[in-house]
Amino acid sequence: MTARTSPARRVPTLDDLERAGDYTGPHPVTLQDEVEGLAVYFLLPTHKGTDRFDRPDEHSGLHGIYQPPWTFRECEDGSLEVRASIGCGVPPYYWHGYLDEGNTWREV
C-alpha cells in the first residue's frame, strides 16, 4: 500500500483551526488522575466540514491526541512530528497515518 501525503498547517490556537490539515499544539492539559500532559488538536486532511464543529462525516470535526502515549517533537522548520501513528476510530480506522516533519500528513 502506498502512503498518501497531504499538506498540514500549524496554527497557534484552537480558534485558528479553519481548514483540512490544520493542527495546533502541543498545549498543556491535565489528563486522567491529574497527570500533566500535552495535547495536539487537528482537523484531518480528509475534513469536509465548514469549521471544526461541523461533522458531516466521521473524518470531519475536531480530533485530538495526547502525550503520553504519543510523542511530539518540535522540528527545526517550525513543524511538529507526532509518533506513534494516529488511528482515528475503532479498528479498522477510518483514518490512519502520521504527522511528519515539514508539515505533512501521511496516510498509511
Description of the molecule:
- It is a single chain.
- Helix content is 0%, strand content 46%.
- The chain has no helices and 9 strands.
- Strands 1-9-8-7-6 form a 5-stranded antiparallel sheet, with no helix packed on it.
Write out key terms for the chains shown:
mainly beta; 9 strands; five-stranded antiparallel beta sheet; 108 residues; globular; four-stranded mixed beta sheet; single chain
Number of domains: 1
Report the radius of gyration as a whole number of Å: 13 Å
Oligomer: single chain
How many helical stretches? 0
Helix content: under 10%
Based on DSSP secondary structure assignment, what is the total number of beta strands?
A: 9
Q: State the low-pLDDT regions, or none.
A: none
What's the mean pLDDT score? 95
Helix and strand composition category: mainly beta
Q: Largest beta sheet: what is the strand line-up? A: 1-9-8-7-6
Instruction: Name the beta content range.
Output: over 45%
How far apart the termini lie comes to 7 Å
